Amino acid sequence: MVRISTKGRYGTRLMVALASQFGKSPVLLKEIAKQEEISEGYLQHIVDALKGAGLIHSNRVGHGGYTLARSPAEITLREVLGVLEGSISLVECVEKPELCTRSKTCVTREVWAELSRTIAGTLNGITLDDMINRKAERNEQSFYEI
Prior knowledge:
Strand order of the largest sheet: 1-2
Structural class: mainly alpha
Number of strands: 2
CATH architecture: Orthogonal Bundle
Distance between the termini: 37 Å
Strand content: under 5%
CATH topology: Arc Repressor Mutant, subunit A
Radius of gyration: 18 Å
Mean pLDDT: 90
Helix content: 55-70%
């Protein structure tokens, strides 16, 4: 089964939390850790990867904290997961056909490539801004269900 790792899931939650504070003051990692119920140490590992990829900035001024490097409307889930998960191809031979001598004639490789493109397209079509809007809709629904 194809799965997104804990690193990918937690990293996405981190990015949504930062996106919800975009344009405001930097957010402390311990605040996100508490809000999302994720170990601060584990989040630091994720932050380092996202910072290295240029998706977030650390702020040393004042109390410190983190902000998105770009607008939430400009950062896609594919970018985030690409940094944290690596390739989103379902099988290695899709991106590296030279790994398999059957790549040119393999029917299943064509299917895996098609599925990989579909997944990539879907992830490219969802921004952090979209995730914030989904969260807001969910919170409104919860309010009216009480």
